[in-house]
Amino acid sequence: MSYRKRYGADGTDGTDPFNRIVNEPKDNSKRRPCEYCKKSSTYGDLVKSSENTVPEELAIKFGINGYICVRCKRLGPSLSVRKIKLEKEQKEFEEKQKLVRYKQEQIRKRTKIENAKRKGEVDVLYYYHTKGESGLKTEIMKLLASSNNDLFITNLKLVQGIGMFTHSKLDFDIILTRLFTDCVQNISSFDSLIFELRNSKFMRLSLKSLSIKQYENFLEQLEIGHWDEENKLQFLQILLVHPGVNSDNLSIINGVRKVFPIKKDYFISYIIRKNNRSDKNLEHINSMISLIRDEEQRLLSILSLPPQTIGKYIAESDVFSILESPFYLMMISVAQLQGIFHDENFEHLLEKIEEKERFYSISPGKYCNTILQKLNRITNNELQNSNTYFTLENFFPIYWNLDGKLKLISGRQKGMQLDANEVYDNVRVINTIQMNFDDKFLNKSYKSLSGKKDPFCIARLITDFNCRYSTSIREKLDRLLISYE
Fold first, then answer.
1. Cα–Cα distance between 422 and 416 in angstroms, integer?
2. In 3D, which of 338, 375, 370 has the Cα closest to residue 356?
């Protein structure tokens, strides 16, 4: 078999970009007509018809078939080139139309905004504000400040959730003035509004920024007796952010107590202890320790203070009471003791510490060694080695017992029909009336402590469940902690 010599078309070594036949023709080579001009051409002058090779006009008139000669191919742009050009023109047209529609929409939006400003339609302005339209916040504030009371409440409920009052002090004061001075006395739905705002950042900031007089007016109008306990407790934490809640403003304290109308000493003790366990740790709250007349509640409050401030709020009589009580010595931490006795006002009481060291070093109770170790750290005496260390300093109420149903009572008070744990004078026995909680965790924790003979469990009923107790009960508990082996 012989092969015909091949040559490269246009110097491409046999690869023709126009897909022409590149075999070397002979004198008797075959010819075929072009599908468009019908003239006979050699294979070397023909290419296969396609969108890339057939001009647009010929493709429309004759279609795309067979082969096309190079002469016809040069008559105009191919169909594919025309398509690209048309697509480009279409895209440019659509972009121009989009720009026109955008400008028209901007005109319509500005018209609606101007009409809303003129008519006082806060909801329309608020809608465009949430869509990113700038410059509307000031206008919304002006409308809120000038609207009537009922419309003011409606608009405030609408916009309070977006945090728009936290950026400008001037704008914020406008709302505060309306809400807590002008409107509060005339709005029938004030309590429902406060309920909706109770957990918002706006409420915290607004209450914190009120003057003493404004805050007093606000508390006078507050009626939340229909709220459930959980919401009351949450709202109470918000009320405490105001710096006026301190020992100098009894009227404000009494107003805040409307949330939980319980005995003042228990109420103040609760908010101080809760405050010192929170992230905020408001210093003005701790100043109320001096208002607590009940010694036990005052000592519980003092023992919740951080080591760096405990020396500021504790009196010398309170230091003596703590040193005389094994229960409170088990609750106080070494850091708190150091905070007290490193204060120059209490350095002279170190002799009392040494006296207590001698007492607990000869006491047989299993808990006395723990107390002795704490005292050794204060006097820098040699630590007593022990494999056990019992402490109450890390325990905190999991149930606050604000209604006072749980009490530690003496055996002589038997028959008072109270949910109680009885501490007897002469025997180390605790009789517990059954108390069931709805919460499974609380119920399990309570049952693990109640009815036990160990005085440490009795103490845990105070630290974990905030059981009420008197000074005489605590003194009996102290005796049990010293003697229990």
1. 11
2. 375
Can you tell me the distance from the alpha carbon of 94 to that of 89, in angstroms, rounded to the nearest whole number?
A: 9
Q: Could you tell me the strand order of the sheet in which 407-410 lies?
A: 407-410, 420-423, 430-432
Instruction: Break the chain into its structural domains and give their ranges.
Output: 9-73, 407-483
pLDDT, tens digit, for every residue of 382-412?
Answer: 665 666 778 898 888 988 888 888 888 765 4
Distance spanning both ends of the chain, measured CA to CA: 117
Residues contacting residue 342 through CB under 8 Å, at least 6 positions apart: 311
| Run of H or E residues at 163 | none
What proportion of the chain, given as a percentage, has pLDDT over 70?
A: 74
What's the rounded mean pLDDT across residues 174-203? 64
> How far apart are the C-alpha atoms of 338 and 146, rounded to whole Å?
58
Mean pLDDT of the chain: 76
The Cβ-side half-sphere exposure at 285, using a 13 Å CA radius, reads 27
Q: What is the token pair recorded at 212? A: 């003493």
What are all long-range contacts of 224-233, with beta carbons under 8 Å and residues at least 24 apart?
A: 224/191, 224/194, 224/195, 224/258, 224/259, 227/195, 229/402, 231/195, 231/198, 232/259, 232/260
d(CA 481, CA 392): 12
Quote the tokens at residue 455.
């005085």
List the single range of 31-35, 55-59, 77-81 with lowest mean pLDDT.
77-81
Query: Can you give the pTM of this predicted structure?
Result: 0.63
Say which amino acid occupies 322: I
> What is the bridge-based pairing of β-strands 420-423 and 407-410?
parallel
Tens-place pLDDT, residues 250-290: 888 888 888 878 888 998 999 899 888 877 777 888 888 98
